[in-house]
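Ligand-bound model needed. adenosine-5'-triphosphate.
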Amino acid sequence: MTEAPVKMRSRHVFKSFGATRVLKDVSVEVRDGEIVALIGPSGAGKSTFLRCVNNLELIDSGSVEVDGELIGYRRVGDHLQPLGDREASRQRARIGMVFQHFNLFRHLTAVQNVAYGPRQVLRLDRATAERRAAELLGRMGLAGREHHYPRQLSGGQQQRVAIARALAMDPSMILLDEPTSALDPELRVEVAGVIRDLARQECTMLMATHDIPLVEDIADRIVFMVDGTIVEEGPAEQVLNAPAHERTRAFLARMTSRNDAPA
Ligand SMILES: Nc1ncnc2c1ncn2[C@@H]1O[C@H](COP(=O)(O)OP(=O)(O)OP(=O)(O)O)[C@@H](O)[C@H]1O
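Prediction:
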């Protein structure tokens, strides 16, 4: 079987915030249609890495490419120059991002939240953008909630609006940052179901998560990161069942026992 083409490739990414070195030589590949789970303890740098892929943060050195295009910088001769605002937001618009705390506009309804990007960035007219938004909300099981404001929706429903919002831009890939971790168990199941459906539709996803059952369910590959460095990566089944590294084993044991603990 030939391997799918590479969708996202990071090479030797370093990122610091002041004196805090957060990413230290992170090289990751995500292939077209692949679901990659980025796992690891709190503070490992998972969110920061996703933010770098989406150009919400600029890396200090190394490179990130999506569909072969350099993210955050342009080459000028031998040098790299940070992109201007316009180019940076064009890149951001091509990569969907779903956040832990949904990040919906509070003053916009569900359908307006989903239609916002297509109207502002893709320049769709209002009727077309809202019709497409309503269709996507329907696919997320939110028919009838189109005109609700975020405060009138449960956390699970808000996260499904956020996923619809990401899909509305026809993204090249979707980054999910702890999409289920702000949710109660039953709402988590609801959102996990939507993410599982997307995985079946061969969306390309890179997801930072502590939700090991969701990882077991949908991930093709796992990247395990500790303290800004990748400790282990491989096919999900292999990493979950026979982790090669002691730190991966200890982390998974800790996470699994926490998930199995009575509520
Ligand atoms: N904007 C920032 N300014 C300063 N430090 C930051 C900033 N963003 C992240 N950090 C630091 O970077 C480190 C990694 O944070 P990050 O949120 O990427 O980790 P994480 O693996 O996603 O953790 P969690 O699982 O808790 O979400 C932490 O020490 C954090 O305090």
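The chain has a mean pLDDT of 92.
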